[in-house]
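Progress note, sequence design subtask.
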C-alpha cells in the first residue's frame, strides 16, 4: 500500500487554479453627496455675495451722508466768513 504523505499527487487530485474577477458597482451614493455639497457651496457663495452687496450699499449711504454733512458745515463756515468780512467792511 502506498504512503500518501510521500507520494506525488495524481493529476486528478491536483488543485485547479481559477481566477475570480470581482466587479464593484457603486449605487450612485457618491454622486448624490457631491451634488449636495455643490449645492450647499453655491448657496453659501450666493448668500455672501448678497450680504456683501447690502453692506456696500449701507457703506455708500453712510459716505454720502457724511459728505453732505461736510458740505453743510463748509456752507456754514462760508456764511460765517462772509458775515465777518461784511462786518469788517462796514467798520
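Output:
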Amino acid at each position: 500500500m502506498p504512503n500518501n504523505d510521500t507520494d506525488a499527487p495524481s493529476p486528478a487530485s491536483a488543485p485547479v487554479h481559477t481566477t475570480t474577477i470581482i466587479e464593484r458597482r457603486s449605487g450612485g451614493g457618491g454622486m448624490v453627496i457631491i451634488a449636495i455639497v455643490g449645492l450647499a457651496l453655491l448657496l453659501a457663495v450666493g448668500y455672501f455675495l448678497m450680504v456683501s452687496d447690502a453692506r456696500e450699499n449701507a457703506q455708500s449711504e453712510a459716505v454720502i451722508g457724511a459728505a453732505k454733512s461736510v458740505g453743510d458745515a463748509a456752507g456754514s463756515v462760508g456764511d460765517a466768513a462772509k458775515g465777518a468780512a461784511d462786518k469788517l467792511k462796514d467798520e
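The helical segments are 29-90. Work on this subtask will continue into the next period as scheduled.
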